[in-house]
Design a protein that fits this description.
single chain, 107 residues, mainly alpha, two-stranded antiparallel sheet, 4 helices, 61% helix, 10% strand
Length: 107
């Protein structure tokens, strides 16, 4: 459900808006978060057979920081965001791979 859909639903039902349940849009986040997401999705993936996704390729990080005009004082914050995103993505990929292996074992 998008933010727009949620707001229309609340309007139709006459309920009061619960901002805790309202899905955020990209425009709701600070520019640094949007930049980190764009940089994250611009970096290559490291994927190996039988192991799966193991993370992002950070070799072009400096070029992407220049492209997105990341200032020196922002670099630590952006790196922290990138590492958080990478960790979450690796964990999800490993969870999916394990679920697939478990499903194959049951056959």
């Amino acid at each position: 459900m998008t933010k727009d859909q949620y707001l229309r639903m609340v309007e139709q039902t006459g309920e009061e808006i619960d901002w805790e349940r309202c899905p955020p849009e990209l425009s709701d986040f600070p520019d640094s978060i949007v930049d980190a997401l764009n940089i994250f999705h611009s970096m290559g993936n490291k994927v190996y057979p039988e192991i799966g996704y193991i993370g992002k390729d950070f070799s072009n990080r400096e070029i992407l920081f220049e492209l997105y005009d990341i200032k020196k004082y922002q670099e630590d914050w952006i790196m922290e965001l990138l590492l958080f995103l990478e960790n979450e993505t690796v964990n999800e990929a490993q969870r999916q791979l394990k679920a697939e292996y478990d499903r194959m074992k049951k056959k």
